[in-house]
């Protein structure tokens, strides 16, 4: 993990206007700068960049964040890559221990290995230019030179030591070891009697370079031209290349994914390049492995909609089910996952060639939403008409509900399933071990007695008169109070840092009374505020919140906050006034409970003493 102190220093040196300005044309608009949002298509600018807060926010689509967030969302970089790119621009070095804590894909990255991969990719492209047989194969598959160039497609001849022309003799151990390390060379171990054999992994194949999100070549895929096995061959796992963490074509497709507002996932690189040729440049593919959660996370960083397109045969259905399982823990009410199944005799490439782009687009629009595919997955090979079959479906679905986030979509799927099973939502929630979402109508007793509004003592104080004026402009209902406080603490963590233990306890209590989730968020937020340094800034604190388990909730609240922003003085008055009101409400609630016992003549002497104490506290509160 990158040290927090380094992130703070980096953000203090980086100017977000310069970072965003490289990709977005910004113009001065009041105290901020404004431009067309790079994350969705719009005609009127709603994308705002604050120089003072070092933060961006789109009032159209809700995208927001710091300079680090912008590179992650716009360029599709990982957190570490974004930090490294910004650090390089301002002359800082990312602490080495941070890289050691990162995923295997980033632990052993080396400029030496990238240089080797780049030279190999160039060699393969040059070889393609000279080989008419290979060019004819691509032409017959309908690929243009423009698409071949965009994807860096190449060819390697049918020989055992092709790469010696670039790197020198394989008898040199340094050359051989380096090529073997990146998966270009296969070495057989000698037994003392025979010498070590070294030969190219890829021979007589069309070569597809596999790039990371920076555009660097990290691996290769090879497709046999004539008959032979295996038809497709990928680089092995290397320090640069992890199949479960890489999507072929994502680097080339990310711009089009944003423009077309969805990503299309298929099974192979020929599907990707063919679809790009035929009007679907937003396609990507997994690389000889099942779709993983990491794959889905990568896609959802670039778009809110993902369509999985698999062959209609049994293997395609199995691949779709694995993709479905990878999606379940990452579901969000703001994201959409769909599944497209083509006729058994077709893959996306053949379907578009035979039926045209319009027919394929129609199939995409008719694709199956995850909620319906859910019923198909759990109902596979069972008889819904029998009690035994429905019990099997109910039992099968339990594993998925346990992994699914507590979102509105889960409730909707739960209700649909209850109808199909002839059960109730509450029964299924109990069976799955989920907290109940059934809301009971409970009469709410008002906390404040009816009194003359003008006679309230606290309103005579100057700071609370100011609060009253603010409330007229931005009214807050009692049920909104916890959420409003959370939004203010998100913007000004200094206010949370100053809370006393009792004040923090009171805020957590009233938030919990609203919902259990609100209480957990309030507790988490106050703890994060207290850990903040005294000179913490807005942009830096948002990066802290993005690492919390409640990051999605903070993001949602932050979007609303930036639409009705408070100054620090206004926020201070709101928090002070809220704390006073909460304290008074707690006192009144306890007094009402004692009064109720007195009226029923079940009170104790301690009740009478406590009532008098509370009365004195109310006068000074």
TrEMBL record:
EC code(s) of this entry: 2.7.7.101
Domain commentary: Contains an N-terminal zinc-binding domain, a central core domain that contains the primase activity, and a C-terminal DnaB-binding domain.
Residue ranges annotated for the Toprim domain, each copy included: 261-343
Keywords in alphabetical order: DNA replication, DNA-binding, DNA-directed RNA polymerase, Magnesium, Metal-binding, Nucleotidyltransferase, Primosome, Transcription, Transferase, Zinc, Zinc-finger
Gene Ontology terms: cellular component: cytoplasm; DNA-directed RNA polymerase complex; primosome complex
Identification of the protein by name: DNA primase
Cofactor: Zn(2+)
Protein family (similarity comment): Belongs to the DnaG primase family.
PANTHER family according to UniProt: DNA PRIMASE
Example GO BP: DNA replication, synthesis of primer
Subunit architecture: Monomer. Interacts with DnaB.
ZnF bounds (CHC2-type): 37-61
GO molecular function annotations of the record: DNA binding; DNA-directed RNA polymerase activity; zinc ion binding
Enzymatic reactions: ssDNA + n NTP = ssDNA/pppN(pN)n-1 hybrid + (n-1) diphosphate
Top-level taxon of the source organism: Bacteria
SUPFAM superfamilies: DNA primase core (SSF56731), Zinc beta-ribbon (SSF57783)
């Amino acid at each position: 993990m990158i040290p927090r102190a380094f992130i703070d220093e980096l953000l203090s040196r980086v100017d977000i206007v310069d970072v965003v300005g490289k990709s977005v044309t910004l113009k001065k608009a009041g105290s901020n700068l404004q431009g067309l949002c790079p994350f969705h298509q719009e005609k009127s600018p709603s994308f705002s960049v604050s120089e003072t807060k070092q933060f961006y926010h789109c009032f159209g689509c809700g995208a927001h964040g710091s300079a680090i967030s912008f590179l992650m969302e716009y360029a599709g970089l990982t957190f570490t890559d974004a930090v490294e790119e910004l650090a390089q621009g301002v002359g800082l070095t990312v602490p080495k221990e941070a890289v050691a804590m990162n995923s295997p894909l980033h632990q052993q990255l080396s400029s030496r290995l990238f240089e080797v991969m780049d030279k190999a990719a160039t060699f393969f492209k040059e070889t393609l230019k000279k080989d008419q047989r290979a060019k004819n194969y691509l032409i017959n598959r309908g690929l243009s030179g423009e698409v071949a160039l965009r994807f860096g497609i190449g060819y390697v001849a049918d020989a055992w030591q092709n790469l010696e022309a670039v790197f020198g003799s394989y008898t040199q151990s340094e050359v051989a070891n380096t090529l073997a390390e990146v998966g270009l060379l296969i070495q057989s171990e000698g037994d003392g009697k025979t010498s070590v054999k070294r030969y190219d992994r890829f021979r007589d194949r069309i070569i597809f370079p596999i790039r990371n999100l920076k555009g660097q070549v990290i691996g290769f895929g090879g497709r046999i031209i004539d008959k032979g096995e295996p038809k497709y061959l990928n680089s092995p796992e290397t320090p640069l290349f992890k199949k479960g963490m890489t999507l072929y074509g994502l680097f080339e497709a990310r711009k089009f994914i944003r423009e077309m507002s969805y990503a299309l996932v298929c099974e192979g690189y020929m599907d990707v390049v063919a679809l790009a040729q035929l009007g679907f440049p937003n396609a990507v593919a997994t690389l000889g492995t099942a779709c993983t959660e990491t794959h889905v996370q990568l896609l959802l960083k670039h778009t809110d909609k993902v369509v999985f397109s698999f062959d209609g045969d049994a293997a395609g259905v199995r691949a779709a089910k694995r993709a479905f399982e990878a999606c379940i823990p990452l579901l969000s009410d703001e994201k959409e996952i769909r599944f497209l199944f083509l006729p058994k005799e077709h893959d996306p490439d053949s379907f578009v060639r035979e039926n045209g782009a319009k027919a394929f687009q129609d199939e995409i629009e008719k694709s199956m939403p995850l909620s319906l595919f859910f019923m198909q997955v759990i109902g596979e090979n069972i008889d819904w008409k029998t009690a035994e079959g429905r019990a099997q479906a109910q039992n099968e679905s339990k594993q998925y509900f346990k992994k699914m986030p507590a979102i509105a979509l889960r409730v909707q799927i739960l209700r649909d399933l209850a109808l199909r099973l002839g059960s109730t939502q509450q029964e299924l929630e109990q069976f799955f071990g989920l907290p109940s979402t059934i809301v009971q109508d409970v009469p709410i007793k008002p906390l404040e007695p009816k009194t003359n509004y003008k006679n309230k003592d606290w309103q005579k104080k100057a700071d609370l008169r100011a609060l009253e004026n603010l409330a007229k402009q931005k009214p807050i209902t009692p049920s909104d109070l916890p959420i409003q406080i959370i939004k203010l603490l998100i913007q000004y963590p200094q206010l949370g840092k100053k809370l006393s233990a009792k004040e923090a306890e009171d805020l957590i209590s009233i938030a919990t009374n609203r919902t259990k989730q609100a209480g957990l968020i309030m507790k988490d937020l106050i703890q994060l505020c207290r850990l903040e340094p005294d000179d913490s800034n807005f942009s830096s604190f948002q990066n802290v919140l993005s690492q919390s388990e409640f990051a999605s909730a903070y993001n949602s609240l932050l979007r609303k906050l930036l639409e009705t922003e408070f100054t620090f003085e206004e926020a201070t008055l709101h928090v002070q006034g809220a704390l006073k009101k909460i304290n008074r409400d707690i006192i009144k609630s306890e007094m009402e409970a004692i009064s109720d016992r007195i009226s029923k003549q079940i009170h104790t002497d301690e009740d009478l003493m406590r009532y008098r104490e509370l009365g004195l506290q109310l006068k000074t509160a």
